[in-house]
Design brief:
Elements (H helix, E strand, L loop, with lengths): L4 E3 L4 H10 L3 E4 L5 H6 L7 E4 L9 E4 L2 E5 L4 H6 L1 H6 L1 H9 L3 H6 L2 H7 L6 H8 L2 E4 L3 E3 H4 E3 L2 E2 L7 E7 L3 E8 L6 E10 L2 E7 L7 E2 L1 H9 L24 H18 L1
Parallel strand pairs: 1-3, 2-3
Antiparallel strand pairs: 4-5, 5-10, 6-7, 6-10, 8-9, 11-12, 12-13, 13-14
Length: about 260
């Protein structure tokens, strides 16, 4: 690992201001992805801007019919939060499925969303619930935030402050996990929201998390596992790797979606 500068700002303004001054500075949240890529030499930031000491990035609060979660909230905090569990139990359950205990106690919501790993769990919840990603500059709707593999709508230096999740009428998440990493080989989040039905898939797509409009339309007509039994996702849109073929992932998406609908 090469040498780098280290900064520990205590406010959002200082964090973003430091980022503007650095040649290639990177925000450090839980470090579960960034530090690993740095060790492999795949990331070589000039500076790390540690967000651990910015209190405004923490906390979970209920605002009307929505739950806002700070970017530095740990996965374990979300999983154990009574506010989340009582209003969006599917989100608390999803957070409890991420990685192992060490990962859940270090990894953060904001770090996961900014990294946008194609097999991560949180993107499915954000897209499936139609959440809003709040940054230091603006609010970004879920449908506009995820742009592709490890690619988001964030501009250079832009910092995720929190994410706001509308409380759904019902929702559930089902995942077929890699037994070693616990990343999703395929994961499906279904939700019946005030704006309609949403179905989001992670771990399977060629370009990361995506929605399945055909399933959404079928579930809008009839909320039942049977309603989507014959709805398939084209294997050509999915990835193949050493863990599963595109065809197998297509099968998993349908199975997991039906299980999620039943669970919801």
């Amino acid at each position: 690992m090469q040498s780098f500068g280290y900064h520990d700002p205590s406010t959002v303004a200082r964090a973003t201001g430091t980022a503007k001054e650095m040649a290639d500075g990177k925000y450090l949240a839980g470090g579960q992805s960034l530090l690993a890529t740095m060790k492999l030499g795949l990331a070589t930031p000039s500076d790390l801007i540690d967000l651990a000491y910015v209190p405004d990035l923490r906390g979970i609060k209920v605002e009307g019919n929505a739950v806002t979660i700070g970017a530095m909230a740990r996965h374990a905090e979300v999983a154990a939060s009574p506010e989340v569990a009582s209003r969006i139990p599917a989100l608390a359950s999803l957070a409890g499925m991420i990685g192992d205990r060490q990962v859940r106690n270090r990894g953060t919501l904001g770090g996961s969303l900014a990294n946008d790993d194609p097999a991560a769990d949180y993107p499915a919840a954000v897209l499936g619930l139609g959440a809003t990603v709040n940054t230091d500059r603006r609010q970004v709707a879920a449908d506009e935030f995820f742009k592709g593999l490890f690619e988001t709508a964030l501009a250079p230096g832009e910092l995720i402050v929190s994410a706001t999740f509308p409380v759904p009428k019902r929702a559930a998440y089902q995942k077929f996990k890699n037994p070693a990493s616990r990343f999703a080989i395929a994961g499906v989040f279904v939700a019946q929201t005030a704006q309609g039905v949403r179905v989001a898939v992670t771990g399977a797509g060629n370009r990361g998390v995506f929605r399945v409009k055909a399933m959404e339309q079928a579930l809008a007509r009839e909320w039942s596992a049977k309603a989507i039994e014959s709805v398939s996702v084209p294997a050509s849109d999915l990835q193949s790797d050493l863990h599963a073929s595109a065809e197998y992932r297509a099968h998993l998406v349908n199975v997991l979606a039906r299980r999620a609908v039943a669970a919801a």
